[in-house]
From TrEMBL:
Organism: Proteobacteria bacterium 228
Domain of life, source organism: Bacteria
InterPro entries cross-referenced by the UniProt entry: YjdM, YjdM_C, YjdM_N
Protein YjdM N-terminal domain span: 3-32
Recorded family membership: Belongs to the YjdM family.
Record-given protein name: Protein YjdM
Length: 112
């Protein structure tokens, strides 16, 4: 059984080595497995205007947001202090005054 990773484009398991690169015979994709590993760990999260967000930043909401499963609305200008970046669709975890713990999408916030 092969210990090589599947092709990142077509998920084919028939990958072979060609020097330092890996090659997929089904879609002809070539890649260096060392470069792919570092690219996945360097995820950059940006706010609505393109500023890079980091853990501990303070952001403001740029649009009224309805809270799913509730009648609450997060108003424009609400500040979220000391954010934490996470993986997933909603990539910011934070606490909002009067609401509590919340997950937000970075496209709806702006760095202060």
């Amino acid at each position: 059984m092969s210990t090589l990773p599947a092709c990142p484009q077509c998920q084919s398991e028939y990958v072979y080595e060609d020097g330092s690169n890996l090659v997929c015979p089904e879609c002809a994709h070539e890649w260096n497995p060392n470069e792919v590993a570092t690219a996945e760990t360097d995820k950059v999260v940006r706010d609505s205007v393109g500023n890079i967000l980091q853990d501990g930043d303070t952001v403001t909401v740029i649009k009224d947001l309805k809270v799913k499963g509730s009648s609450l609305v997060i108003k424009v200008g609400t500040k979220a202090k000391n954010i934490r970046l996470v993986d997933g669709d909603h990539d910011i975890d934070c606490k909002l005054d009067g609401i509590g713990a919340m997950s937000l999408k970075s496209e709806f916030v702006k760095k202060v």
